[in-house]
Amino acid sequence: MIALGGAIGTGLFVASGSSISTAGPGGALLAYIIVGIMVYFIMTSLGEMATFMPIAGSFEQYATRFVDPAFGFALGWNYWYTWTVTLPAELSAGAIVMKYWFPHTPSVVWSAVFLAVLFLLNVVSVRGYGEGEYWFAGIKVLTIIVFIIIGLAMIFGILGGHPVGWHTFMTGGTPFHGGWLGFLGTVMVAGFAFQGTELVGLAAGESEHPERAVPRAIRQVFWRILLFYVLAIFLIGMLIPYTDPNLLNASVNNVAISPFTLVFRRAGFALAAAVMNAVILTAVLSAGNSSLYASSRMLWALACEGKAPRVFARVNRRGVPMNALYVNTVIGFVAFLSSFVGNGAVYTWMMNAASLTGFLAWLGVAVSHYRFRKAYLAQGRDLSKLAYRAKWYPFGPLLATVLCAIVIVGQDISAFTGGKVDWTGVIATYIGIPLFLALWFGYKWIKRTKLIPLQDVDFDLD
Fold first, then answer.
1. Residue 428 pLDDT > 70
2. 327 to each of 18, 224, 289, 332, how far by Cα in Å?
3. Which residues on neighbouring strands pair with residue 254, listed in sequence order?
4. Which of 5, 6, 9 is nearest to 279 (CA)?
5. Which of 166, 209, 200, 246 shows the shortest CA–CA distance to 1?
């Protein structure tokens, strides 16, 4: 449920509309299929390493052991920053969603309430985080299943009285619109929508039977992505023309025109907007819950490696790194408050710096797995002893690496194709890359680290 819930959020419930509006239903379908394949290979790579070496804060450890300690340092702090900055974004989104029911209550009140709830879920133990994520994911999955059933019923004429033809899907004579730039922009949106799926790798280190639970989650994730994302987008494309302005304008601020709400309304559900508002609130809280869990575990892992102050390596009797949890909660709330200062300029730059960090984490997983398998074989180890073996190696991690690199480089390619270049916008978009490289090569220069020879890779499970 963590693997599944991590991939389902506002990217599907809201942003899928803008994807269809930008690239057409065919372009959106193709973009989500391509990114879904990339995510599948990243997950199989992560699954092989996480079942062999289940560690909370795993990305940093894998990069440190199988590639280079400096690469692990940069990847760990990069991933910590991703989720630390995501937390205030989700707190803001949660407050916006609550405005639907309580328009006169100050946003900061709801954000503080949600932060307290998420903090308590994470304080209880890892079971608290897992239980919260289980129910959040369950609500999202149930909503999509109901949506798919209703959408199919409308297409076949069971609801509405007559079958829906292909004319809406083929608006303009083709399902593809917006050219290659529109398609590339949709690939970016799809990539952001899938981020969070990799959380299963962090949770593996604290699960009861990772050798059984992780492979099962990995095997199912591709088909569930295919079912929930691709089928949902196909249904939206069949029922709502890509020219509908509501698709482009849907947002957390305006749930009433999200593609899911529009379809539910056409099916005759009067309370569609209120129900979808509640569902989107669970998606927001789920992302916030994951933010606190992931950032605290990554800071703990960095501290255990001596790459962060040792005070964050302490855990309580329930195994929760409380100092790391405290500091991430405080940083998250201070960052949230910064969104009210100076028109939110500071926070906007913080979010821009985080825009690429999720893709850099995926790139790090693919590179780490490629090195893991090569070192495993170079040391004469038996592949049959692996509890889970990724299929399509080395094609899988190599393809994932290439696709991640394309997505990272192509973040703001449109800025260079429209005449005058807005360099401020370009810098804001790509600022995450020099920050990552500064961490990598700065640590490398200070610690004099080198690429670890395959024969020297440490597979010690202790």
1. yes
2. 36, 35, 15, 8
3. 251
4. 9
5. 200
